Amino acid sequence: MPLRHQPEPAAIGELIELAVNGVGVSRPYRFDISIYRDNEARFWLDLTNPDVRTMSIDGVPIAFHSEGSWARFVGGLVVQGGPGVVWDNVEAAHDAWLGAGRPPREQYWLTVTAAGQEIFLAGAPAGAVA
Asked: Could you tell me which residues are beta bridge partners of residue 77?
């Protein structure tokens, strides 16, 4: 469940079709889509990658971003396509969360101003983390 309402991509059906059947670049993955099952990890992943959606279509796990990037998980590999590398970004965010010691959501602070919002990790050096 997203932290707040996010607009769905205009061509979600096309993105799902590409994610399931598209030709892309393959590599072994470090983390599969199951990282979204950990609620604390998902909180961080939704903060750092708010436009990423995950699902399974006919048993094939997929992820996609509203800008058109997609990823499919098959046989120990992630296949990615589109204008970005959606799963590389998710894995990098997950690595950062693990490196921070798997902090629970109670350790995040939020600052909201007219210029925008920043998420900080309590006790971390100054600087936004998301």
From this structure: 28, 74
Structural domain contains residue 123: no
Where do we find the tokens 């997203």?
2
Let me know: does 99 contact 37? Beta carbons within 8 Å.
Answer: no
User: Nearest CA to 62 among 102, 108, 15?
Assistant: 15
Q: How far is CA 21 from CA 12, 56, 71, 100, in A?
A: 14, 13, 10, 36
Instruction: Decide if 36 contacts 94 (C-beta within 8 A).
Output: no
Q: State pTM to two decimals.
A: 0.83
How far apart, in whole angstroms, are the C-alpha atoms of residue 119 and residue 130? 5
| Structural domain contains residue 124 | no
Question: What is the number of structural domains in the chain?
Answer: 1
pLDDT 10s per residue in the chain (130 long)?
455 555 555 578 888 888 899 999 999 999 999 999 999 999 999 988 989 999 999 999 999 998 999 999 999 999 999 999 999 999 999 998 898 889 998 888 888 889 988 877 776 655 556 6
Report DSSP letters for 98-117, one per residue: HHTT---GGGEEEEEETTEE
